[in-house]
Design brief:
single chain, mainly alpha, 3 helices, 65% helix
Length: 111
């Protein structure tokens, strides 16, 4: 299993979010709470915030990695096509560079 697949599996197995955190005024720790009311006590406030936000941050990060991976594959395929046409003599160096430039503009507009 890849690292991303392992992260995705842990994310899918966790209690659905969003989670929240509460600082307890009379105790030296805070509590992270899931929507179902499950509690996890955390000693350090920044740790509690990190844990609570991880429930929504991790799915977003995984989706962004997937989007960027797909974009990278599309661009590699397009550039490979330009290089094949250039190698076959169907494109001049200037035409190949212009094609690559238009691919980069397309990627910026699509991202």
């Amino acid at each position: 299993m890849s690292d991303l697949a392992a992260i995705r599996a842990r994310e899918q197995a966790a209690t659905p979010g969003p989670w929240s955190y509460k600082e307890l005024k009379h105790y030296p720790y805070e509590v992270v709470v899931s929507p179902g009311g499950d509690h996890a006590f955390v000693v350090w406030l920044p740790d509690g915030r990190f844990i609570a936000h991880a429930r929504t941050d991790i799915p977003w990060l995984l989706a962004e990695v997937e989007r960027l991976t797909a974009e990278n594959a599309r661009l590699q395929g397009c550039i490979q096509s330009v290089l094949v046409h250039w190698d076959d003599g169907k494109l001049t160096a200037t035409e190949a560079l212009l094609e690559i430039r238009s691919l980069l503009e397309w990627a910026k507009a699509d991202g």
